[in-house]
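Bench log, entry 3. Co-assembly request; chain sequences pasted below exactly as received.
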Amino acid sequence: MAYRSGFVALVGRPNVGKSTLLNALLGRKIAITAKKPQTTRNRIVGVLHRPEAQVVLVDTPGIHRPRHKLGQQMNKTARLSAKDADIIWHIVDISRPPNDEDRWVARFCEPLQVPLWLVMNKADLVERVRDHWLPYQALASYDNQFVISAARETGLEALVNAALNAMPEGDPYYPEDMVTDQSEDFYIAEVIREQVLEMTREEVPYSIAVAVEERTPRRPDLIYVRATVFVERDGQKAILIGEGGRMLKEIGRRARTELEAYFGKKVFLDLWVKTRERWRDQDAWLRRLGYSEPER
Ligand SMILES: Nc1nc2c(ncn2[C@@H]2O[C@H](COP(=O)(O)OP(=O)(O)OP(=O)(O)O)[C@@H](O)[C@H]2O)c(=O)[nH]1
Ligand SMILES: [Mg+2]
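Structure output for the full assembly:
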């Protein structure tokens, strides 16, 4: 049988569980997740390898009404990934009725000439999925539909098998041992950002970005990492540092614990906070922080 390989774009409004699904399918965490919306800001590739096929899963930022250039870039990243895919999974949260953002996603994807599958997630939160799915099925003429719970890992096998069978014939896009194309610096920055999302409220989680400035092995069993958390206002900086530096220390402690498990080494995490006014609206900063897609 000929080898199959292709791209599946995971698109949907924020917070429906796209990144949770990506991690569940790969059996390991490559994308951060959070209770708050607009967590993912980049295209994140995860590769599923099978003897007869390869599926390149592309996690994308949740499509939303943007309030800054950052949001516009995030939406653009999601739209470009959908256009380039062999299949689009429109991920929805079946425990809530569709909203405008779900409708925008459907309206954008439908004319793309890419097979569009409806993936109804968070099935664990409702008693009978059938009581909730009609308004979603009406959003677009879907080519296939699945009911899953990414958190409980149910329904995933049927979804993956269907995707494997639907991939076009072709050579693998990625080598066998490659699970993601993201750099370790990007992953480190994301783990720190995940802890900030977890620990802060209101506008703070949306106003921050993290950049790894230095990563040096200090000993065979120790890595030194210096990273900066950028905020938009000095008030946010004060919140992030906290009284007597307690907040930043706790964020650093949590991120370090996770990074030590990831690297299997001790990590010295040197965390700084800097104010960059309105970075979310400045092209140069979006580029510097890795949030802008090339023009096409
Ligand atoms: N109960 C339940 N919760 C889920 C499920 N899948 C995801 N979640 C939760 O939903 C929240 C959002 O999950 P994410 O994976 O970050 O969602 P996302 O679609 O990637 O969000 P953005 O990156 O903001 O677009 C998290 O708190 C997850 O734990 C599920 O199947 N069931
Ligand atoms: Mg996400």
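Residues 4-166 form a domain with the Rossmann fold fold (CATH 3.40.50.300). The two ends are 36 Å apart (CA to CA).
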